[in-house]
Amino acid sequence: MIEISGLYLQHDGQQILKDIDAQIPASGLTAVIGPNGAGKSSLLHCLAGLVAPSEGSIRVNGIDIIAARAEERARVVALLPQGTSSLPRLTVADLVAFGRWPHHRGRPGPQDHEIVAASLRVFDLEALADRRLDTLSGGQRQRAFVAMAYAQSTPWILLDEPLSALDPKYAIDIMRRIHALSRPGADIRGPVVVLHDLGMAARYADWILCLKDGHLFKSAPRAEVVTSNTLSELFDTAITVEQVKGCPVVIVE
Ligand SMILES: Nc1ncnc2c1ncn2[C@@H]1O[C@H](COP(=O)(O)OP(=O)(O)OP(=O)(O)O)[C@@H](O)[C@H]1O
């Protein structure tokens, strides 16, 4: 579980996150949603322990993530930030292998190689392993970055807008793979994913944390968040939720 208590974050005298108390359950996929500038990326950086809040605490699986040493943090949480640069000269396999760095510190062993191979498999990248990143499509490249975060083998995997700039086919493909990580199995992970696509959040999230203007607007199971009233109020615009073929469909009017 991730436990956030009394969290405040300030940048240059501006309050970015304000008095956030929330819990993110250990099982299932969590989406973080909210308007532009609400503080979603800032929250993710705090959860990864990369940005120290001005007040409050964050415990990830019981560990005080702000006080923890970098190596300890990197074994609990992997963060894929928004708009990762493409590092063009690297191959896909090199990039994914970076995910193992916190474990081997430059001396990869057999287990690291096995985990890189498994990560390439999970994200269907084996055929692309030796391709340089600058020869891939945006969707393939994004899959490689998510695989790198996966290779870090942490119980939590934080992804900031992993679907941005992807066409529907690539977006649904990555979303399904991320969702599969959160399902019970041998290697279950807790994905926490910033999503602008409300349709994806409505369909794949088990839990949704909503931020608005730096405040916690709501943190609840999907069914309590994906309603016309809640989404309209969160985004200050008319939004209707309807059921089509048993799935919630979000219509921005
Ligand atoms: N390093 C920083 N220095 C100063 N202000 C910052 C910094 N990082 C973020 N901010 C400000 O904090 C606020 C929240 O930004 P953040 O990127 O966390 O929001 P977001 O919800 O992820 O936005 P978006 O949906 O547009 O990506 C914004 O007003 C932004 O300008």
UniProtKB/TrEMBL annotation:
Keywords: ATP-binding, Cell membrane, Ion transport, Iron, Iron transport, Membrane, Nucleotide-binding, Transport. Residues 2-238 form the ABC transporter domain. It is found in: Cell membrane. CDD domains: ABC_Iron-Siderophores_B12_Hemin. One of its GO terms (cellular component) is plasma membrane. GO terms for molecular function: ATP binding; ATP hydrolysis activity. InterPro entries: AAA+_ATPase, ABC_transporter-like_ATP-bd, ABC_transporter-like_CS, P-loop_NTPase, Siderophore_ABC-ATPase. One of its GO terms (biological process) is iron ion transport. SUPFAM superfamilies: P-loop containing nucleoside triphosphate hydrolases. It is a peripheral membrane protein. Its main location: membrane. PROSITE patterns: ABC_TRANSPORTER_1, ABC_TRANSPORTER_2. Pfam families: ABC_tran (PF00005). It comes from the Bacteria. This is ABC transporter ATP-binding protein. It comes from Paracoccus tegillarcae.
